[in-house]
Amino acid sequence: MVGMTADATLAPPMPGTLAIGPHTVSPPVVLAPMAGITNAPFRTLCREFSGGKGLFVSEMITTRALVERNEKTMHLIHFDATETPRSIQLYGVDPVTVGKAVRMIVDEDLADHIDLNFGCPVPKVTRKGGGSALPFKRNLLRAILREAVGNAGELPVTIKMRKGIDDDHLTYLDAGRIAVDEGVTAVALHGRTAAQHYGGTADWDAIARLKEHVPEIPVLGNGDIWCADDAVRMMRETGCDGVVVGRGCLGRPWLFGDLVAAFEPGGDRTPAAPDFGQVAVVMRRHAELLGRWIGDEARGVIDFRKHVPWYTKGFAVGSELRRALATASSLAELDDSLGALDHDQPWPAHADGPRGRTAAGKRVVLPDGWLDDPYTCAALSEDAEADTSGG
């Protein structure tokens, strides 16, 4: 099964592989870390559709929770034996703690690649100086990267960031240069500011400018990749070395199969979209995988509920059946509801385009006086490492 219909008018895609340290990523496609989404079950689905090609990053792990061996965190860093390379995204605001977390990953062989989150725009993160707020403090960013790279040994360290806090406080070019100076292997840029959250249109020109600014390392583009042709077009228009796909794959893990096809020379550029019956099969497998991973069928189905609107977007479902899907508490209940769907419904054209959060224009909440000086700041509090991700 495949996803969106491709635009056959585009020329053949650019061939390419992405080097993340010793790891070759081909096609140059990365699953973006998303809190509560990119856990082991979802990564499994995406990898199955891609044939194992691409790079699939874990949801964000806070460095303090990792160092303290928080039980939930230790479960989140579990990788399936077939996952390679194993990729962890870390979030931290204290250079020493970040360094300890990275050293722990190296010493205990917990991953093969480390990504650092500087893109989260969530208020409870930015108000503590974390996420997309942090790169404004250039010296703090440098100190964190120095500790991470210095403790990583042979493991490659990459970063994911946004353009800046808002249009008056752009940080991505300075952050990119600091990353190069400190030995970061690659940088990913979401072409939005924190103030934009997920609204409006991603600024692909900023991705192109960053690529020109830091030609020494790979630059990955992120933002508004809703189908495989978007990924090909982003690479053509920006010159970036790879793409990071986030909200575009919500309820569509088969998008990674489309991406593989789009980037392979002579690959199928006009795949047929799945019908509702094929989507239902994936929904059922997703819920089952979550139950196995959590160790409890009911909790797995409950966790799956948030995926229902994404999988069913655009299909004619009906309010009662949609409610049944969103309140199922067992695989049997889910099977009953999935069985009642019109499996012959074709993929709805109006399901294309933006998925997930689209809110825009929110005020960025920052620590008092955060914008007074881009270089110095007081030590951030321990509770700055909120258990929230995004970017």
Summary?
Helices cover 37% and strands 13% of the residues. The protein is of the alpha/beta class.
What does this structure look like?
This protein has 391 residues and is α/β, with parallel strands linked by helices. It has two domains: 18-271, Alpha-Beta Barrel (TIM Barrel); 276-346. The chain has helices at residues 40-50, 63-67, 71-76, 95-107, 123-126, 138-152, 172-181, 204-213, 228-238, 255-263, 276-294, 297-304, 308-312, 319-327, 331-339, and strands at 18-20, 23-25, 29-31, 55-62, 87-91, 113-118, 157-162, 164-166, 169-170, 186-190, 219-222, 242-245. The strands form three sheets. The chain has an eight-stranded parallel β-barrel, surrounded by seven helices. A two-stranded antiparallel sheet has the order 1-2. α9 (228-238) links the parallel β11 and β12 (242-245). The longest helix is centred in the C-terminal third of the chain and has 19 residues, at 276-294. The two termini are 29 Å apart. Residues 1-13 have low confidence and may be disordered.
Q: In oligomeric terms, what are we looking at?
A: single chain
DSSP helix count? 15
Please estimate the helix content. 25-40%
- Count the E strands: 12
CATH architecture of the largest domain: Alpha-Beta Barrel
Shape: globular
Instruction: Give the DSSP E fraction (strand runs of 2 or more residues).
Output: 5-15%
> Radius of gyration over alpha carbons?
20 Å
Number of domains: 2
Q: Ranges with pLDDT <50 over ≥5 residues?
A: 1-13
Described by strand count, sense and barrel closure, the largest sheet is: 8 strands, parallel, barrel
Q: According to CATH, what is the topology of the largest domain?
A: TIM Barrel
Q: Any idea of the CATH class of the largest domain? A: Alpha Beta
| Ends distance | 29 Å
